[in-house]
Specification:
Elements (H helix, E strand, L loop, with lengths): L1 H28 L7 H13 L3 E9 L2 E9 L2 E3 L2 E4 L4 H5 L5 E3 L3 H4 L4 H6 L3 E8 L5 E9 L9 H44 L3 H12 L8 E11 L4 E8 L4 H6 L2 E3 L3 H9 L3 E3 L19 E9 L2 E10 L7 H26 L1 H47 L5 H31 L8 E3 L1 H18 L2 E7 L7 E3 L1 H17 L4 E10 L2 E8 L6 H4 L11 H7 L5 H11 L3 E7 L3 E9 L8 H11 L8 E5 L3 H13 L3 E5 L2 H10 L4 E5 L7 H15 L7 E5 L6 H7 L4 E4 L4 H11 L15 H5 L7 H6 L4 H28 L2 H17 L3 H13 L7 H27 L1
Parallel strand pairs: 15-17, 21-22, 21-23, 23-24, 24-25
Antiparallel strand pairs: 1-2, 1-7, 2-3, 2-4, 5-6, 6-7, 8-9, 8-13, 9-10, 11-12, 12-13, 14-16, 17-18, 18-20, 19-20
Helix pairs in contact: 1-2, 6-7, 6-10, 7-10, 11-12, 11-19, 12-17, 13-14, 14-17, 18-26, 20-21, 26-27, 26-29, 27-28, 28-29
C-alpha cells in the first residue's frame, strides 16, 4: 500500500508539473497576435520547456520549407528556406508527430539545423489546415537527451492547432495581398500604356515599375528591354533601368535570335528563368567583375507573335512557380500588345497627322455650320413667333373679308418661310446622322389619303386634278415611320403640284418584288435629262429660273432621298421634258397583323386624354410681342396666366403663388430660363416638397441638342417657337396629365360633396369612339374587368408596405379611371398616388388606408352606375 501511495504522489506531481507548464505556455502566447505570434510561441516553448531551440516552419511545396520563426539560445533568428529531405521535420510534415528523445543527429546527418545546433533530441507536430492540407511543422530541439516519457509530443500537439490556424490566417492574408499586388501591377501597367507615346518610353516606364516588386518578384533593381528587328532577325536594346557598365551597354546593343537568354526567350516565345549566371550554359555573355545573379526573361507577345523581350536581374536561384509564370506571361502579353500598337502608330504617324488635319477642318466646318443654323433658327423663329401668333389670333376673331384675306396671306407666307427653315434644319440633322426613325404600325392607304387631303387645296389653286390609288395587294398595316413617310410623300406631291400648271397629279401605291412601291406622277414641265443626275443633291434645282419662278431651297428632294434611304428604301425619277415626271420610291414590306377588337379597345383606353380642367400658368418671356401671343394663346385654351419679363421675376412669382405649370423662355436678360429653372428646382428641394412644378421650355432654338439641354436643366418638356396652339396643348397634356382640381378656400371638394357627383361621365368616351356603342361597351367591359384587380393588388401592396408598387398601381388606376370619365375615382387614385410617394408611415399610412377605402367605394358607385345604364 505504501508503494502505491508513492507512485500516486509521483503521478500527481507530474500532472501538476504538466499543468504548470501548460499554464506558462498559454500565458506566454495569450496576448500575441499577427506577426508577433510565432516569435512569442517559439520563445515561450523554448523558455518553458528548457530546450535549446523551438521553431515553426511553413511548407513551400516541392520538398522545400521556410523557417518562419526560430528561437535559439534566447535569440530570434531571421527566416530562411531549407530542404525537408533527410530531416526530422520531413518525417513530420503532412504525417504524424515524431519524438526522438536522443541520438537524433545520428539519425538525420544531413539536417543542417541539427548539425549547426549539435542537437541530441527532437519533438515535432504537423500543422494542418481546416481542409486537411499540410501547412508546416511545430518543433523543439535540444542539445541534451530527454527522458522517454517526457510529454513533449502531447504539449506540441495542443499548440499545433493554434499555430496551424495562425499560419493559415497569415497565408490567407498573404494570398490576398499578393492578388491585390498583382491587380495593382496590371492597373499600373495599364496606366503606363495609356500614357506612353513610343515603345521605348513605354518599356522604360514599365521597367521602372517592375524593378520595385519585391513582394511579387525578388529583383535587384535593374533590367532592360529589347525590340525585335524581324528583317535582321536580331533583338535591339531600346532601354535599361539601373546601374549597367558602359561595356555591357556597348556589347548588348544587338543580340541575335537564339543567342543568350533573351534571344532564346524570343525564339521560343516562353518565359525563361535563370538561377545562376555562372552555372547556366545559356548565359553566353559574361563580363569582368560581374556578380552572380539570376534572371526573369519575359517575351513580349502580341497575338502570339514575339515583338521583343524584357530581362530582370534577380538574386541567384529566384523563386519560380506556375503562378509566377502566369503573371510574367500576362505582363509580357500586356506590354507586347501595347508595343505592337505603338509600332503600328509610328509607321502610320504621317498618315494620322494628315487625317487629323482633315478631321479638324471637317469638325470646324461642321461646328461653324451648326452654329450658323442654330443662330439662324433662333433669329428667324423669334420674329416668326410674333408673325404667326398674331395672324392666328386675328383669324380667331370676326374679321371683314378683306382683312381676313390679308391675315391669311400673312399666315401662309409665314408658314412657307417656316417650311424653308425646317427643311434646312432637317437636312442638317440628316447630315449629322441625328435623324431618328421610328418603327410603328402604319396604314399605308390611310397615309396616302391624308397626303391627298392635305394637298387638295393647293391642287385646286393650280387647276390640277389630284388622285390617290392603292392596289388591292397593299396590306392594311406595315411597320415603318409614319411621319417620315408622310414627309416624303408631301414633298414629292408638293413638287408635282408646284411644277404642273394644268393636267393631273396621281399618287399610286402598290407592291413590287416584295416591297411597297410609291409613285407620284404629274403632267408638268418635266426635267431635262442633263439635270436629273444632280436632282437629289442639296441646294440644287433644275436651273436658276426655276428657283425664281417657283421658289424653294432645293433641299426637298435631297431630304427625301436621305429619308427613304434611312428607312431602307430606294428613290428615283423618270421624266420627259415638256410631258411630265414620275418620282418613285420603295420601302421594305414588313406586314403587321390587323388589330383585334380587344386591341383596338385597349388602345382607345390608353389614348384617351384626361378631362380638361383650367390651369393656372406662369409665363416668363422678355419679348413683348411673344409675351402677348403666348398669353392670348393660353387664355384661348381656357387657362389663366400670369406673365413675367425675365427669369428672376419668374422665380419671385413662383415663390409667391401656386402654378400648375410654367412656360419658360430660354433666352432672357438678368436670368435666363435655364438658370431660373435650376433655381426653382433648388428651392423645391430645400423646401422638401412632394411635388414639383412642371416647366415647359419656349425657345426659338430648334437644333438637335436644344431639347436635351432643356431637359438636362430640369425642364419637363419643350415647345419650339413659333408657338402653335396644338403643340402647347400637347405639351400641357404631357406634363400636366390628370392635374388635380385646385383646392382653394371656399371651393374645397369634400368627400360628402363627392358623393353627390356623378360617378361617371361618358361624354368624352362617346366622342372618342364616334358614338359607336359597341366599341364603347368593349372599353367599359375592359375597365370593369381590370380596375377591381388593380384595387385588389393595391390593397396587397399597401399591406406588404411595398410603396413603390402601390404608387405604380395607383397611377395606373388613375389613368384608367380618367380614360372612362370616372372622375371621383380618378381623384381618389391621384391622392393615393401622391401619398405613397417615398413611403407611407404614421399618419400618412392611415391616410393611405382611407384613400384605398375611398377607391373601393367609388368603384362600387361606378359598378352601380353601369348596371343602371344597362
Amino acid at each position: 500500500m505504501a508503494g502505491l501511495a508513492v507512485v500516486g504522489c509521483r503521478r500527481a506531481r507530474e500532472i501538476a508539473k504538466t499543468e504548470q507548464t501548460m499554464r506558462r505556455l498559454v500565458e506566454g502566447t495569450a496576448e500575441a497576435t499577427g506577426e508577433a505570434f510565432f516569435p512569442a510561441l517559439t520563445r515561450t516553448l523554448a523558455d518553458t520547456l528548457g530546450v535549446s531551440c523551438a521553431l515553426v516552419s511553413r511548407s513551400l511545396g516541392d520538398g522545400q520549407a521556410r523557417i518562419v520563426s526560430l528561437h535559439l539560445d534566447g535569440q530570434q533568428a531571421e527566416p530562411f528556406d531549407y530542404t525537408l529531405a533527410g530531416t526530422p521535420c520531413g518525417e513530420v510534415v503532412g504525417k504524424e508527430s515524431c519524438y526522438f528523445p536522443r541520438d537524433v543527429q545520428a539519425r538525420f546527418t544531413e539536417d543542417e539545423i541539427l548539425v549547426a545546433l549539435a542537437g541530441e533530441s527532437y519533438a515535432g507536430a504537423p500543422l494542418f489546415s481546416a481542409a486537411g492540407e499540410p501547412l508546416g511543422v511545430l518543433a523543439v530541439i535540444d542539445r541534451k537527451p530527454w527522458p522517454a516519457d517526457f510529454p513533449f509530443g502531447s504539449l506540441l500537439s495542443i499548440f499545433a492547432a493554434r499555430a496551424a490556424a495562425e499560419l493559415a490566417r497569415q497565408q490567407s492574408e498573404a494570398e490576398v495581398a499578393r492578388r491585390n499586388a498583382e491587380l495593382e501591377l496590371i492597373h499600373d501597367l495599364d496606366q503606363v500604356i495609356r500614357d506612353a507615346t513610343t515603345p521605348a518610353a513605354l518599356l522604360h516606364a514599365a521597367l521602372t515599375r517592375l524593378i520595385h516588386l519585391d513582394h511579387l518578384l525578388v529583383v535587384q533593381g535593374k533590367g532592360g528591354a529589347f525590340l525585335l528587328d524581324e528583317e535582321a532577325k536580331v533583338l535591339r536594346l531600346v532601354t535599361t533601368v539601373g546601374d549597367f557598365s558602359p561595356t555591357f551597354l556597348a556589347a548588348e546593343q544587338v543580340v541575335s535570335l537564339g543567342e543568350c537568354l533573351c534571344g532564346r526567350a524570343a525564339l521560343a516565345g516562353e518565359v525563361l528563368v535563370s538561377g545562376d549566371c555562372y552555372a547556366d550554359d545559356r548565359h553566353d555573355h559574361r563580363y569582368a567583375n560581374m556578380a552572380a545573379h539570376g534572371h526573369y526573361i519575359l517575351p513580349l507577345k502580341a497575338g502570339g507573335r514575339v515583338v521583343g523581350t524584357v530581362f530582370l536581374y534577380t538574386d541567384t536561384h529566384p523563386h519560380f512557380d506556375s503562378r509566377l509564370a502566369g503573371l510574367l506571361e500576362a505582363i509580357g502579353g500586356q506590354l507586347g500588345t501595347a508595343v505592337e500598337r505603338l509600332l503600328v502608330q509610328g509607321e502610320l504617324l504621317e498618315t494620322n497627322r494628315e487625317l487629323a488635319t482633315a478631321r479638324d477642318q471637317a469638325l470646324a466646318g461642321s461646328r461653324a455650320k451648326s452654329e450658323f443654323l442654330a443662330n439662324m433658327s433662333h433669329e428667324i423663329r423669334t420674329p416668326m413667333n410674333g408673325v404667326l401668333g398674331m395672324a392666328e389670333l386675328l383669324l380667331t376673331g370676326d374679321l371683314p373679308a378683306e382683312a381676313r384675306h390679308y391675315a391669311e396671306t400673312i399666315q401662309s407666307s409665314g408658314e412657307a418661310l417656316l417650311t424653308i427653315l425646317n427643311d434646312v434644319l432637317d437636312f442638317s440633322k440628316i447630315e449629322a446622322g441625328k435623324m431618328v426613325f421610328e418603327l410603328l404600325p402604319v396604314d399605308p392607304r390611310r397615309c396616302l389619303d391624308d397626303v391627298a387631303a392635305l394637298m387638295a387645296g393647293r391642287a385646286r389653286e393650280h387647276a390640277v386634278a389630284l388622285t390617290a390609288l392603292a392596289t388591292a395587294e397593299v396590306p392594311a398595316r406595315v411597320v415603318g415611320d409614319p411621319s417620315r413617310l408622310r414627309q416624303v410623300l408631301l414633298n414629292l406631291v408638293g413638287n408635282a403640284v408646284k411644277f404642273t400648271d394644268h393636267g393631273e397629279v396621281a399618287i399610286r401605291l402598290g407592291v413590287a418584288e416584295g416591297e411597297l412601291l410609291f409613285e407620284v406622277v404629274d403632267s408638268g414641265i418635266g426635267i431635262p435629262e442633263a439635270a436629273r443626275a444632280q436632282l437629289f443633291d442639296a441646294f440644287t434645282q433644275v436651273d436658276a429660273s426655276t428657283s425664281r419662278r417657283f421658289g424653294g431651297t432645293g433641299l426637298g428632294l435631297a431630304i427625301s432621298r436621305r429619308l427613304v434611304e434611312g428607312m431602307g428604301g430606294e428613290i428615283g425619277v423618270e421624266s420627259v421634258e415638256g410631258e411630265g415626271t414620275a418620282f418613285w420610291f420603295t420601302l421594305p414590306l414588313r406586314i403587321v397583323a390587323p388589330p383585334t377588337a380587344a386591341e383596338t379597345a385597349a388602345a382607345a383606353v390608353r389614348s384617351v386624354a384626361a378631362p380638361a380642367c383650367p390651369l393656372h400658368l406662369l409665363l416668363a418671356e422678355d419679348n413683348a410681342v411673344n409675351r402677348l401671343v403666348a398669353s392670348k394663346c393660353v387664355e384661348r385654351l381656357g387657362h389663366t396666366v400670369e406673365a413675367t419679363v425675365n427669369g428672376r421675376a419668374a422665380v419671385a412669382a413662383w415663390q409667391r403663388g401656386h402654378f400648375d405649370a410654367i412656360l419658360m423662355d430660354c433666352q432672357m436678360p438678368e436670368m435666363d430660363g435655364y438658370a431660373a429653372t435650376a433655381e426653382i428646382r433648388r428651392l423645391e428641394q430645400e423646401a422638401g416638397a412632394n411635388g414639383r412644378t412642371p416647366i415647359i421650355a419656349l425657345t426659338a432654338n430648334a437644333m438637335a441638342g436644344d431639347r436635351q439641354r432643356c431637359l438636362a436643366a430640369g425642364m419637363d418638356d419643350y415647345v419650339a417657337k413659333p408657338l402653335r396652339g396644338d403643340e402647347l396643348v400637347a405639351a400641357l397634356a404631357r406634363v400636366c396629365a390628370n392635374p388635380p382640381i385646385l383646392e382653394t378656400p371656399g371651393s374645397t371638394t369634400t368627400e360628402a360633396a363627392m358623393d353627390t357627383v356623378m360617378p361617371m361621365d361618358l361624354t368624352y368616351l362617346r366622342e372618342l369612339v364616334g358614338g359607336d356603342e359597341e366599341v364603347m361597351g368593349e372599353i367599359l367591359d375592359l375597365f370593369m374587368e381590370d380596375a377591381p384587380r388593380q384595387i385588389a393588388a393595391l390593397g396587397e401592396a399597401i399591406t406588404r408596405g411595398n410603396w413603390q408598387e402601390a404608387q405604380r398601381l395607383a397611377h395606373t388606376l388613375k389613368g384608367s379611371a380618367s380614360n372612362v370619365g370616372a372622375e371621383p375615382l380618378r381623384q381618389a387614385a391621384w391622392s393615393l398616388e401622391q401619398n405613397t410617394k417615398g413611403g407611407a408611415e404614421g399618419e400618412t399610412r392611415g391616410a393611405v388606408t382611407e384613400l384605398l377605402a375611398r377607391c373601393t367605394a367609388e368603384m362600387a358607385r361606378v359598378v352601380g352606375f353601369l348596371e343602371e345604364r344597362g
